[in-house]
Amino acid sequence: MRRAYNSVLKLPQLGKCQQCDAPAIPHRVCPACGFYKGRQVLTVTAGA
User: Fold this and answer.
1) Is 21 exposed, middle or buried (0-12, 13-18, 19+ CB in 10 A)?
2) From CA 31, how far away is CA 12, in angstroms rounded?
3) Contact (CB, 8 A) for 29 and 16
4) What is the DSSP annotation of 1-48?
5) How far apart are alpha carbons 27 and 41 in whole angstroms?
6) Where exactly are the structural domains of the chain?
7) What pLDDT score does 27 carry?
8) Nearest-5° angle of CA 18, CA 39, CA 45?
9) What is the pTM assigned to this prediction?
10) Which among 33, 3, 1 has a CA at the least distance from the CA of 18?
11) What are the pLDDT digits (tens) for 1-48?
């Protein structure tokens, strides 16, 4: 009975990054380009 709620849990839905159109979790920094709300927050290196 306690495990009945586990079937309701879902994976986070992916949105689209405004900068690079890569799939990204909403309200998080894009892992592909490092932008969040139009600002560059992280420096992403290619081939890492």
Assistant:
1) exposed
2) 15
3) no
4) -GGGGGGT--PPPPEE-TTT--EE-TTS--TTT-EETTEE-SPPPTT-
5) 13
6) 2-40
7) 92
8) 85
9) 0.65
10) 33
11) 677 777 777 888 899 999 999 999 999 999 999 999 989 998 988 765
Here the tokens at position 5 are: 């709620």
Strand 35-36 with 23-24, pairing = unpaired
pLDDT at 1: 63
CA distance 1 to 7: 12
- Residue of 48, 41, 46, 39 lying closest to 18 (CA atoms): 39
